[in-house]
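Annex B. Sample input.
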Amino acid sequence: MVSQNQNFESQYRQLRAIVQADAELMKMLQSVRECGLASWCIAAGAIRSRVWNTLHGQTIQPSQADVDVCFFEPDAAEQLEQQIRQSLGGRMPGVNWEVVNQAHAHRWNGLPACASLSAALASWPETAAAVGVWLDAAGQLQIIAPLGLEDLFALRVRRNPEFADALAYRRRVSEKNWLQQWPRLTQVDLRKSGGNALGLLRFGDVPATGFLHLVTDCLQAALAARTDGAGGRINRILLQLIALVAQSHALLFERGSGAGIVGGRR
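Annex B, continued. Sample output.
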């Protein structure tokens, strides 16, 4: 029997292979890396569509599709998004760059502020969209998948339980015409399936399904900082990791005291 961890590792390797085989996407990643952002990824449709195309045996990517560049800079000026968009447009002018500072997204999306890039992706409407890729300081491909990769590779369209507006989600899916473009997709109705109880258990500001991936992100960042010789940054990352583990421990015990972590937002 294949464990959940083994399944994730297999999907992780498969995603890396899909991305690395796409010369245009790798060039996009290199272009974003050259912008010098500390925490960033290319996510959403640019990744999801390539995986679903591969699983459907399709090789042509939509030429006019947006490429979502997500970064996390809480103290950045509003103008930074436009500056990055212009910089990327100069490097690859044929790409429809969509650049968003996820640290500021709560100002317009009606959701609570997030503490990290992983937490921001974990709040997105569909589970399969909450996947990003980036290049570290050594040029190695890294993956951010706070809700896992299972739905993406199982060709499932599922609403993230943390995205409360079910009507907006259904309207979004209808407008995107995903089921027509990728006929092997299946749409999961949380009302019929009873929802995802694990997805509703939260560690801090990320669902339990993404907690281990967030821990992995911290460890990868610490390793990258170590490679760069950035000792102070390693300490900050490790302190963040310790805080996450301590918070998860406290929340699990809080669940037993009737605090209501399972079943919705705290």
